[in-house]
Amino acid sequence: MSGNIANQFKKLEVEYERLLKCFSEFEKIKGKLTSAGKTVSQNDVKAEKPLSIHHMNIIAGNAKKDLKALSISLKKIETHIKHSVNK
Prior knowledge:
The protein is an all-alpha fold. It contains 2 helices and no strands.
C-alpha cells in the first residue's frame, strides 16, 4: 500500500513541476503581449488590439489557484505518507 502512495505522490510532484513550468511560460508570454500592445501605434486603426490585460489576469489568477490547490494536495499526501511510514 505504501508503495502505491509513494507512486501517487511522485506522479503529483511531476505534475506540479509541469504546471509550474507552464505558469512560468504563461507569465513570460503575458509580459511580451503587454509590452507589444504598448508599442502598437494608437493611430493605426488596422492594428489588432492585444489580449485584454483583464482577461490575462483572470487566466493568471486561475492558474495560481490551481497551483495552490495542487500544492495543498501534495502537502496532504506527504503528511499521509509520513504518518503511514511512522506507524
